[in-house]
Automatic annotation (TrEMBL):
Pfam families: PALP (PF00291). The keyword Magnesium does not apply. InterPro entries: Cys_Synth/Cystath_Beta-Synth, TrpB-like_PALP, TrpB-like_PALP_sf. CDD domains: CBS_like. It comes from Ignisphaera aggregans. Keywords: Amino-acid biosynthesis, Cysteine biosynthesis, Pyridoxal phosphate, Transferase. Its cofactor is pyridoxal 5'-phosphate. GO terms for molecular function: transferase activity. One of its GO terms (biological process) is cysteine biosynthetic process. SUPFAM superfamilies: Tryptophan synthase beta subunit-like PLP-dependent enzymes. Residues 7-288 form the Tryptophan synthase beta chain-like PALP domain. Belongs to the cysteine synthase/cystathionine beta-synthase family. The keyword Amino-acid biosynthesis applies. This is Cysteine synthase family protein.
Amino acid sequence: MSVTDIMRFIGNTPILELTRIRPFNNCRLLVKLEYFNPTGSHKDRIALYMVKSAIEKYGLKEGDIVVEASSGNTAISVTFIAKRFGLIPIIVVPKATSVNKVRLLKLMGAEVVFGNEDPSSPNYYLKLAEDIAKERGGVFLNQYANPANVRAHYETTAVEIWNQLNGSIDCFVMGVGTGGTITGVGRYLKERKRDVVIVAVTPKGSKLAGGPGIDRIEGLLHKDIAPLLDRSIIDKVIEVPYSEALDMSLRLVRDEGVLGGISSGANIVGALKISKELEPRSTIVTLIVDSIFRYIDLLEQNIMM
Ligand SMILES: Cc1ncc(COP(=O)(O)O)c(C=O)c1O
């Protein structure tokens, strides 16, 4: 039977147990492969939820505008979903966004506007997105404050993990960007199993870890803490240096054949670190958030190939 709506391929991603990259204490490490989503990341889930909720709340119809501020996976996912509903996506990106990403967004049909990454600038990209939405009568989706982000992970990612493992999960590890994934998945798991350990992964010295926020891993927040993040469900924060995340993403590709991106490498580093503190034979789950294809330039610049 064929399926005529590509959005039906969002979610229901596979879970793989790693066999070469082994945690301590005989723990098992399972990874949910989110690059199996249509545009290659977990953000397809939230883009679908945020756009649908905007359509319901504001009665959007074909030709109406949705605006998002993002330079990464969410920009691509929002463009993909908006086009499916006949909406016009306007994506505000920081000026430093890679040329290839901007080209891809344009190819996919987005209108791309350049903003500034400095919050004190009048053209700060999040503020600019809000202004554009007002001026052009569109809806600013704002993944950093949109409850549909958390809901997507609570209702889909978490339920899938729970069902795929028949509830046998002891620890969930996830890098924190908007906090949508860890909050949605963590909340669901804790409601079903109170002692499941929820671990937040963050760049070394980030604000979340109480530091100045110098080290940077694309997709994870380093200088701010997103308002959606529910810190009450987090048991432990693990800091990961950028260089370790990078090395691990290469190990993932070469040793396991898992073509994950750099924040996925950080998730694995976090999982290995927490395994030292878990009961023997615990089951740890994390996400392979997106794919290495988004980071070829970065990897080439940083690693002797
Ligand atoms: C590559 C990457 N990793 C991790 C995350 C973190 O996910 P969340 O925003 O749900 O915290 C993001 C989010 O932007 C991302 O793009």
